[in-house]
Here is the input.
Amino acid sequence: MAANRIRRTFENLREQNTPALIPYITAGFPQLDWTVPLMEMLASNGADIIELGVPFSDPIADGPTIQRACKTALEAGTTLEKVLGLVREFRKNNDTPIVLFGALNPFYHYGLGRFARDAADAGADAVLIPDVPVEEAPPLQAILRAHNIDFILLVAPTTPLERKKVIAQNASGFLYYISVKGVTGARAQSKFAIEEPLRELRQVTDLPVVVGFGIATPEQARQVALHADGVVVGSALIEKIAAAKSLNEALQTTSPWFKSLKEAICTTRAS
Here is the structure.
């Protein structure tokens, strides 16, 4: 069952006392035929879950790097239907959980019931739709739940405790804590003030809590991994892909860097 992949992943990682490494890439960036090889490279180099961005003309919560990636992906002809095709192709040989991340618009126009059915058939495990507030989530949740697809929800640094409780009650799979105020994008800072917010969040949920936004280096990943159940890296990965002149170059340049992130978070708790 789709939802079981995420649960099993975190159960296995908990036994190993290791946080999850969760890369984000934009589907179809810079070309459709790059996406599955990049996903396979990430899976073979330690990705525990993969966030696959569904491009949209007006990205929600995304900074300049992912905005440009979405624009390029759309110009390359990427649609939600093609994204599901990429998931299906990846799923032929890989069991790594996949979270589809994007604005509501593409899912809504595809048809929510049709999307849930097709996403489950393709092998997607969860969706994260940042412009669906928790108050409006139940109808979509019910549709997704019927197809065993988890509904990931975001928690911001400014979210008050009572609202955290409501979000936690409505989420499944894991909770995504935004490490900084603002949009996605690599930050120069090496410290993230997450220890107290995560402690508070764990008082209201048993779900794993992953942290993303602004994490770009092994040192940043290591620092976040001290407290989080998972570390999300997106914009920094997109920037490395964007700098490559070919798919082969993209695979060769991102692979060792991604391995260094994995090593950083795995050694954090072992030391």
Observations:
- The chain has one domain: 2-270.
- Confidence is low (pLDDT under 50) at residues 181-190.
- The two ends are 35 Å apart (CA to CA).
- Residues 2-270 form a domain with the TIM Barrel fold (CATH 3.20.20.70).
